[in-house]
Every structure is written in structure tokens, then in C-alpha cells.
Design a protein that fits this description.
Structural class of chain A: mainly alpha
Largest sheet of chain B: none
Largest interface: A-B, 86 and 92 residues
CATH topology of the largest domain in chain B: Cytochrome Bc1 Complex, Chain C
Strand content of chain A: under 5%
CATH superfamily of the largest domain in chain B: Cytochrome Bc1 Complex, Chain C
Helix content of chain A: 55-70%
CATH class of the largest domain in chain B: Mainly Alpha
CATH topology of one domain in chain A: Cytochrome Bc1 Complex, Chain D, domain 2
Largest sheet of chain A: 2 strands, antiparallel
CATH superfamily of one domain in chain A: Cytochrome c-like domain
Order of helices and strands of chain B: HHEHHHHHHHH
Number of helices of chain B: 10
Strand content of chain B: under 5%
Helix content of chain B: 55-70%
CATH class of one domain in chain A: Mainly Alpha
Distance between the termini of chain B: 45 Å
CATH architecture of one domain in chain A: Orthogonal Bundle
Oligomer: heterodimer
Shape of chain A: elongated
Number of strands of chain A: 3
Number of domains of chain B: 2
Number of strands of chain B: 1
Radius of gyration of chain A: 26 Å
Structural class of chain B: mainly alpha
Distance between the termini of chain A: 59 Å
Shape of chain B: flat
């Protein structure tokens, strides 16, 4: 915006402002009504839905798979959508950082003096696209196969092992097929081709931190442990 | 002292003198008795005025010592442009949700113990034993979601109305920083109940941070308070959630509001376009 446009805006704004009403009491009334509504909604949700408290944190657990708060779903879904491992860093850090920088610098690269959304097609379309993408990713995150489900098809004999893998928290840090998180553990979709059976079993018992150990599973339920190793070794 | 606007300023007329038509209308009472009654009536009136003078005197006392009169008058009675509608309440609604979070947070902080061994039990104590503990904790949890929704709606409204353009660019930047800080609040607060979901979700979140370029591992170490999750982690998250970020948010909200009052809120953009045409016609 050059100086002429700035001055023109200030002049027009001055006219519109002088035709308005005083902040107190007119705007204050609207603000107070909205504040009351917000308070009622918060209290109603607190009474109706309450705040849950799950079992106490246990750093040695292996069967728990975490979900972030709903307003972070779109960021997590971005991870799911971005599949090639080389681009994962883009999804975790790159895209959110780029979006933050773009948002902050918005008034500097959008210098068009026009304010009416119908006359700023690029800005309006970009805004609607971003909102739609975030909404889509959030909904996807909400209905996503819960991280205790592995959708890939396996032969009947490997179903028990697949069930053990799905309920042991592996998907919290690993990707198996389309399910699970892309980090911090490596993808397991082809782990059978990368590691021999013994190496897989060894890793489960003596893993690299922060991966938790499954030696307890082997002690308490060796059958399930073997099923798990069978399933993982079959992933080629 | 002119803090009150014209129509609200109390008129300081003396009590009206009784004219014809005395209430008792009894000529038999005698002039002295009537005069005495009138005097008592006037005294009562003066006492009532004197009592009502107290709040005005208090405000005057403060105004004389702070010089806040002109500032408050300017803030309260500034004009908002023609066409200001309900969309414009989203900003103050967000601030109100923040205040609700702050108040419920203070009450929670009175019972919460930020230690890896005691945090969970203190939350259980709040839920089960503390009077209204369940309600306050529920309000704090849902208030967070409500605030996120409102802040995004407010940002969307500002974007689509073009209210980030000259001369309000700085306000927009402060607003974006506020949104980021709000999400940080959500992240750090999530760990504090220290149940399974909180713990593992935070593990994933911090590990994601560690995958960032250059500063990633250091950022993760800073958040965790070390190379592994431990007692330091929860104290660190608590300090960030309770002291650092709310302080930053409060300060930035202050600057944000100052700029809003100084620069004024924008008029709805469709209104402006028509106005320009009318103005042009008038000028021609």
C-alpha cells in the first residue's frame, strides 16, 4: 500500500468510525452477552462430559497407545499422510514451521488495500483451502483407525501375531502398513526383509531406548511373544 | 471531576420546596409543626445526597492521584465503527475463556503437586475430595478446547475481514504469537495429570520435536529436563505452563488490547466499499 492508499483508508475509516456508537455500553453489552454464553458452555461441558483420568502413568508399559488432544490432530494426521520416510521431517517440523512463518509475515506479502473478501479472490480462496484442509485432517485424526488396529491383510496363521502387535503399543511409535505413527521408531512394514527372525526377537527383549522392552511379555506369555515375532518376521 | 457522561451524572438540585398542597393538608397543625417537618425532610434529603456522594468522592480521590480519568473516558467511550456486528465479540470471548482458564487454573494449582510420584494422586484428590473439584477440573479441561475454537474463529474473522492490513499489521503478528503460545499451553498442560494418556502423548510430542533440524535434539532435551523423561520433566512442564507462558500471554494480550483501542476495530469490509462510493458522490 502506498501513501495515497494509506491516507485514503484512514480518511474513510474516520468517517465510518464517527458514524458508529460508543464502545460503552453498546459493544460492551454484546461482549458481555458472548462472555456469559462462553461461561455457560464451559460449565455445561464440564458437567455433562467431565474430565476423565485414566490409569496412572507407567513408563515401563508397552500396551498403551497415546492420542494427542483433538486440536493437534491435524498435525498428527499430516504425519500419516506423508508416507515417504525422507519427507517425514517435512511433515513433523517443516510444514508447521513454514505455516507459522507465512502467517506471521502475512501483512507483508499481502499489501493489497482491498478488504472485501469477495474482491480478494486469492486470499479468500487460500484461507478457505487451508481451513478445509485442517478440518479434513482433524476429522481424519478423530476417526482414524485407532492405534490399536492393523489393517494390513495377513494369512490366517499370522492373525494372532498381528493381534498381539496391535495391542502391544507398537503403533504408538512404529508404522506397520498404513497404521501407526511415523516416529520415533522406524517403519516395520518390511522389517522381516531387513532383520532375521532372531534379530527381531533380540530387539524386542533388548531394545534401543526409548523403545520399551518386551521381555516381560516373553516371560509371562511366551506363546504370544512367539506369535508376535512370527508376524513381524513375515513382514517382507 | 467529569468521569461520568452527561446523562449519567447525578443532578445536584436541592430537594424541591413544598408548595401548595401539603400532604397532610391539615391547617390545624400549625405553622411551627409544618416548618419542623419540612426541615426534617430537607435534612433527610441532604443525608441521602451525602451518602450517594461517597462513591463519586472515591472515584474523584483516585482520579486526582492517578490521572486515569481521561484514559478511562477515552477507552470506554471511544466509537466503534458503523456496522460492528457479533463477529467482533470473538476476540473478547477468547480473552474471557483465557481468564476462565486462569481462575480455574489457580484453584487447581492450590491442590496439584508437580512431582512424578504425587501428581496423579493429587488429581485424584481434586476429583474425589475437594469441594467442586470435579467441576473446576472439568471447566479447565473443556475451557482449553473452547479457547482453541474461539481463538481460531477470531483469527479467521480477522483474516477474512482484512483486518490485518495497514495500520494493524503489528496486532496481527502479536495475535499469531498468542495462538502459538495457546497451543504450547495445551501441550504442557496435557502432561500434568500424569496418567497413561498424558505421559505417552507427551513422549511422542517431545520425540517429534527432537526430529527437528539443528535445534531439535536440544529443544527436546530442554523440554524433558534431560535426556530421559523423569522428575525434572514434570516440574519443567509445570513451570512453563503455570508461570512462563501465562505471563507472556497476559503481557501480549495487554499490548494487543492497547493496539485495538488505539487503532480502533475495523468496519466490516462490505460496508466500507459502499461508503467510498457515497462519499465520492457527495464530494462531486
Amino acid at each position: 500500500m502506498n501513501n495515497r492508499e494509506k491516507e485514503q483508508y484512514l480518511r474513510e475509516y474516520h468517517v465510518l468510525k464517527s458514524q458508529g456508537k460508543p464502545f460503552f455500553p453498546y459493544a460492551v453489552l454484546k461482549d458481555s452477552a458472548m462472555a456469559c454464553l462462553v461461561l455457560v458452555v464451559i460449565i455445561a461441558m464440564a458437567i455433562i462430559f467431565g474430565a476423565e483420568l485414566g490409569p496412572k502413568a507407567d513408563p515401563s508399559t508397552t500396551t498403551y497407545t497415546p492420542r494427542p488432544e483433538w486440536y493437534f490432530f491435524f498435525l498428527f494426521e499430516l504425519l500419516r499422510v506423508v508416507k515417504p520416510p525422507a519427507l517425514v521431517f517435512m511433515a513433523t517440523v517443516g510444514i508447521p514451521t513454514i505455516c507459522m512463518v507465512l502467517l506471521i509475515l502475512l501483512p507483508f506479502f499481502d499489501r493489497n488495500p482491498e478488504r472485501n473478501p469477495l474482491r480478494r479472490p486469492i486470499a479468500t480462496l487460500a484461507g478457505i483451502t487451508v481451513i478445509a484442509a485442517m478440518a479434513y485432517l482433524t476429522i481424519e485424526g478423530a476417526v482414524a483407525g485407532s492405534p490399536t488396529e492393523i489393517e494390513m491383510k495377513v494369512p490366517h496363521s499370522l492373525e494372532p501375531g498381528k493381534a498381539v502387535a496391535a495391542s502391544s503399543g507398537c503403533l504408538g511409535c512404529h508404522k506397520i502398513g498404513d497404521n501407526g505413527n511415523s516416529g520415533p521408531g522406524p517403519q516395520l512394514t518390511k522389517i522381516g526383509a531387513r532383520l532375521p527372525r532372531q534379530a527381531i526377537a533380540r530387539t524386542l527383549i533388548n531394545p534401543t531406548p526409548p523403545m520399551p522392552t518386551y521381555s516381560k511379555l516373553r516371560q509371562q506369555n511366551p506363546k504370544e511373544f512367539n506369535e508376535l515375532v512370527d508376524f513381524l518376521s513375515s513382514l517382507k | 471531576m467529569r468521569l461520568l457522561p452527561g446523562p449519567l451524572r447525578r443532578r445536584r438540585e436541592p430537594a424541591p420546596a413544598p408548595t401548595a398542597g401539603r400532604p397532610d393538608g391539615d391547617l390545624r397543625k400549625g405553622h411551627e409543626a409544618v416548618a419542623l417537618e419540612h426541615e426534617r425532610e430537607a435534612a433527610r434529603e441532604r443525608r441521602r445526597e451525602a451518602i450517594a456522594d461517597v462513591p463519586i468522592a472515591v472515584v474523584g480521590w483516585l482520579d486526582e492521584r492517578t490521572g486515569a480519568g481521561p484514559f478511562l473516558r477515552g477507552f470506554l467511550y471511544r466509537k466503534v465503527p458503523k456496522g460492528t456486528n457479533w463477529f467482533y465479540t470473538l476476540g473478547s470471548a477468547t480473552m474471557f475463556a483465557f481468564i476462565s482458564q486462569a481462575v480455574t487454573g489457580v484453584f487447581l494449582a492450590m491442590y496439584y503437586r508437580p512431582s512424578a510420584t504425587q501428581a496423579y494422586e493429587s488429581i485424584q484428590h481434586i476429583q474425589n475430595d475437594v469441594f467442586l473439584g470435579q467441576l473446576v477440573r472439568g471447566m479447565h479441561k473443556w475451557g482449553a478446547s473452547v479457547m482453541m475454537v474461539l481463538i481460531f474463529l477470531h483469527m479467521g474473522r480477522t483474516f477474512f475481514f482484512g483486518a490485518y492490513k495497514y495500520p494493524r499489521e503489528l496486532n496481527w503478528i502479536i495475535g499469531v504469537v498468542l495462538i502459538i503460545l495457546t497451543m504450547v499451553m495445551g501441550l504442557t498442560g496435557y502432561l500434568l495429570p500424569f496418567d497413561q494418556r498424558s505421559f505417552w502423548a507427551t513422549v511422542v510430542a517431545v520425540n517429534l520435536n527432537s526430529s527437528g533440524p539443528i535445534i531439535g535434539p536440544y529443544l527436546a532435551d530442554f523440554l524433558r529436563g534431560g535426556a530421559e523423561f523423569g522428575a525434572t520433566t514434570i516440574s519443567r512442564f509445570y513451570a512453563i505452563h503455570m508461570l512462563l507462558v501465562p505471563g507472556l500471554i497476559a503481557a501480549l494480550i495487554g499490548i494487543h488490547l492497547y493496539l485495538v483501542a488505539k487503532l480502533g476495530t475495523t468496519a466490516p469490509p462490505w460496508l466500507k466499499a459502499e461508503k467510498a462510493r457515497d462519499l465520492a458522490k457527495e464530494e462531486i
